[in-house]
Structure prediction request, 214 residues.
Amino acid sequence: MILTYSIKMRQVVGFRKQGEQVKVKQAELKAAAYNANDFPTWDYPEVSFIGRSNVGKSSLLNNLIGRKNLARTSSTPGKTRGLYFYLLNEKLCFVDLPGYGYAKVSKKERERWAPIIEDYLGTRLNLRGCLHLIDCRHEPTESDRLMSDWLRAHTITTITIATKADKISRGALNKQLAVIRKGLGFFEDDLLLPFSARTGAGRDQAWKAINGLF
Prediction:
């Protein structure tokens, strides 16, 4: 089972400051992997970010870390071509996975990404949980549902983030959260958190959920 560990995990401490406010004093891109042989060999616990291309993975990662451009954002969906490992405070690693579901990326390129994503999610002992990003403005796509089902089937602890929450009204957001929960077949206790990279709304709740993984 994915969440069975044979290595000693570092304690993720020192992230909570003043309630749920989080201080990330050090953050750097530590490794990039384009096949399983590139995965770093360390004992840092890891949290992965996955979602459709252009759903806002890099924006979420930057906001949580408190850096503007550590994870590069792009107006061109499908730009992330590998797995990028960001080490925080020498304690925790965020892993940015390639986006899925973008039609303009060639079938050959998508097929090349699939094995490395499955290798990472399916075999990585350091993995403590996954942030699955869904655009709050739309119903979950077939790709979103397949990914959600895959994570559940592989018993990977998942925090689902509804991104771009500032793009719609509060009333519309509440309705869309219900649509997403229904579309992904969530149970009552499955976690779904709205988030806005522009305003930072939902940042503390996301960090609280991440800390809960440890």
Summary: Confidence is low (pLDDT under 50) at residues 1-11. The CA atoms of residues 9 and 112 lie 31 Å apart. Residues 29-212 form a domain with the Rossmann fold fold (CATH 3.40.50.300).
